[in-house]
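Q: what sequence does this backbone want?
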């Protein structure tokens, strides 16, 4: 029995999606490094914590709010705590759990990173995607994601 195969449009979408991701994220990483700033994963953690500033977040919640895969999140968080960007305290209802909070230094770093990030969002996305394609692109990308992943937006 012959297995179904993706059509040419589906294959092209797959290739383009991966190439676009590699190109755009690569540009962000390069520019952050040139500015002497940490990588996109650090920005991602700081951004997620800043959005949850009042209540903080547990590590598993942070993983769910992340834009990027965080394979070494524990190690990254330890470095961020050591650098004074994030604090951790014992969770009220779970003595083993830790709640993470962004510090003022973490907010300052995220703001400095945003100066680079926002400029790249303008030059690498907004300036290159034709206005008439924006809604279709957003809707198509949303269609690819599980509903619970959309809470990050």
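A:
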């Amino acid at each position: 029995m012959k297995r179904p195969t993706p059509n040419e449009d589906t294959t092209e979408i797959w290739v383009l999606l991966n190439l676009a991701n590699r190109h755009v994220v690569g540009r962000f990483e390069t520019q952050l490094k040139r500015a002497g700033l940490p990588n996109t994963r650090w920005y991602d953690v700081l951004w997620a914590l800043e959005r949850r500033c009042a209540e903080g977040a547990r590590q598993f919640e942070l993983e769910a709010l992340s834009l990027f895969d965080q394979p070494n999140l524990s190690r990254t968080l330890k470095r961020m705590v050591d650098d004074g960007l994030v604090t951790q305290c014992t969770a009220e209802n779970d003595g083993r759990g830790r709640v993470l909070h962004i510090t003022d230094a973490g907010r300052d770093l995220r703001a400095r990173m945003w100066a680079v990030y926002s400029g790249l969002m303008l030059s690498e996305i907004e300036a290159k995607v034709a206005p008439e394609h924006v809604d279709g692109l957003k809707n198509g990308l949303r269609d690819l994601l599980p509903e619970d992943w959309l809470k990050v937006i």
